[in-house]
From TrEMBL:
Transmembrane segments: none
InterPro entries the record matches: CBD2, CBM2/CBM3_carb-bd_dom_sf, CBM2_carb-bd_dom_sf, Ester_Hydrolysis_Enzymes, SGNH_hydro, SGNH_hydro_sf
SMART domains: CBD_II (SM00637)
SUPFAM superfamilies, per the entry: Carbohydrate-binding domain, SGNH hydrolase
Official protein name in the record: Cellulose binding domain-containing protein
Keywords: Carbohydrate metabolism, Polysaccharide degradation, Signal
Pfam families (alphabetical): CBM_2, Lipase_GDSL_2
Domain CBM2 residues, every copy: 267-374
Signal peptide: 1-41
Domain of life according to the entry: Bacteria
Amino acid sequence: MRDTRPLRRPRLPQLPRLPHLFALLAALLLPLGLLAPSATAASPPDATAAAGPVRIMPLGDSITGSPGCWRALLWNRLQDAGHTDIDFVGTLPPQGCGVAQDGDNEGHGGELVTNVASQGLLPARLAATLPDIAVMHFGTNDVWSNIAPDRVLAAYDTLLAQMRESNPDMRVLVAQLIPMNPATCAECAQRVVDLNARIPAWAARASTDRSPVVVVNQWTGFDTAADTYDGVHPNAAGDEKIAARWFPALAAQLATTPGGPGDPGDPDDPALTCTASFRSVSVWQGGHQAEVTVRNTSASPVRGWTVTLRPADGARVTQVWNGTLTTAADGAATVSDAGWNGALAAGASTAFGLIATTTAGSAAPAAIADCAATSAS
């Protein structure tokens, strides 16, 4: 039978107390330097703690988390670009994808951003993970539920306030949602357009120097027929597109400020180069929509880019998004980065969209002449 009685500590023999003797010895030896001072007089340890990794929270619904394989692609693109001191965080674990990754996330399938705001679900998740950057694609279920854009944006306000309460320096990348066209919701496609149209103005109003809010256009160039498996959730091709759109914006937030000899942009550094590739999205009588992908092809980061478009067959670029348009008298169009998408790591890319007027029979609105990059120094 096991003895469950508590163990008794053995009693040690009591040593005689000699306070007066010790005090006398201390008084005699301290002046001679033969007795060390107390530990409190020792040199304090270095209080400077090494900075930890940047903590990034992927935030949203099933498009982010179930399984949200774009996160794995994004993680690996960041690693390959040298952004290794990062930590994807969230209260949810990885959910497959078969790709090495840091899969922690906050993508809860079926959640509405309006419910997360009204029910106060985010603060506890923030407290558990302490993110520095939020990567947010949130509102698809609200659109499906016919929640008005005003209510969705009010929920964004609530979540942003909670993020800043958790971390006053929180940086937020907010997506213009990928398109949706489910068989059971004929109106959803237009509802996404309506919400996306409101997001840039919301972000401009909400952004501050200390806590910037950056819009990432996930809508343009995304095809629900080719890039989803059900009109809503991305397939492998869609995951690639989503990761490619997040990457330059997130890399820009992670980029450090170079300085000093030998940094990128010094006179002895290799030339900074970029390329611009043109892709037709849709054509109609008298008009054309296209997407231009800008890629940093140099070995150094850049902080800005400019693409020159020459008119073809009488075409004129009339509208640009994710870029700043300048048009010359001869119709030549110059598109510069929009600020938030100007910083590109070596090999990284971003994209802007355009609409052009065309003459009868014109197959393309413009031909790309050149791309120029600006040093990150």
